[in-house]
Amino acid sequence: MDWLEKTIDALAQQPAIGYAAGYAPATEPTAVAALALVAHGRIDAAQVAAQLLGSWQQPDGDVSIRAGESAPGWPTSLAVLAWCHCDSQQERIDRGIAWLLANRGKSLPRSPELGHDAALVGWAYAEQTHSWVEPTALAILALKAAGRSNDPAVREGIAVLLDRQLPGGGLNYGNTSVLGQLLRAHVQPTGMALIALAGEADPSKRLTRTVAWLSRHISPETTPMSLAWALLGLKAHRAEISPANDWLAAAAERVHTRDRSPHKLALLALAAKGWPA
Fold it and tell me: CA 155 to CA 152: how far, in whole Å?
């Protein structure tokens, strides 16, 4: 049995997972597990995970990091993604979407100290704070999955991700330059942004440079989570890496010999199949 089959079977038996082996289930890894199970055709098991995520939803619609926690609510987007792909109750999806639209990032005046347009609003890790790349990408994906691609908030979120691209391609967690110092791109947020930007126009042509940057900056040594998000982002733009399956298998082996994180394994399994349509 190869690593992928073994991982999917393990997730099907216990789709509610935590960040590390033996840890309590958490929203992000459980939602990733649900998406991986959907991608591999294990719908019944994915729905078990989606139902558990539903039991964690707060009355105002948000889903925090773990059951019983009321904030922050950034994982709500991942729960909505799982519900949309598992045909969960529309009422849960609607409440999650309403919370996301009511809890976007905070705009800031344009400043010469920052290289990006701080007035553009996406989503943040903590409610009512400045927008960051990863939560913005996840919220866009959730809203698109719910059929809200043309919502003004989604369009502005897309503008955020396009604006946060670095001149040579790639994104980091949120800034382009600070006090005149150009910052470096990072693999994981670049991959996540590329999934959200799939199918979007970019007259500046920076998106093409971002795909090329990411293709050049991953290797068999890339850490498992960054590798998984990178391959998902590249696949979304039809820029697949030929040795990807070998790299994923090697990354899974490293996880098994080090921390046995079910979250990392679920993300690698998702990357092996691609983002669910």
Answer: 5
Mean pLDDT throughout 55-69? 93
Give the DSSP per-residue string, the chain: --HHHHHHHHHHH-----SSTTPPP-HHHHHHHHHHHHHTT-HHHHHHHHHHHHHT--TTS---SSTT-----TTHHHHHHHHHHTT--HHHHHHHHHHHHHS--B-----TTBSS-TTS--B-SSTTSB-BHHHHHHHHHHHHHTT-TTSHHHHHHHHHHHHTS-TTS-B-SS-SEETTEEPPPBHHHHHHHHHHTTT---TTSHHHHHHHHHHHT--TTS-HHHHHHHHHHHHHTT---TTHHHHHHHHHHHHHHTT--HHHHHHHHHHHH-S--
For the stretch 226-255, pLDDT in tens is 999 999 999 999 998 999 999 999 999 999
Residues 6+ apart with CB under 8 A from 265: 7, 10, 11, 252, 255, 256
Given a cut of 80, whether residue 111 has pLDDT beyond it is no
Residue 1's pLDDT band (boundaries 50, 70, 90)? low
Structure tokens at 38: 């959907």
Query: Is the entire prediction scored with pTM above 0.85?
Result: yes
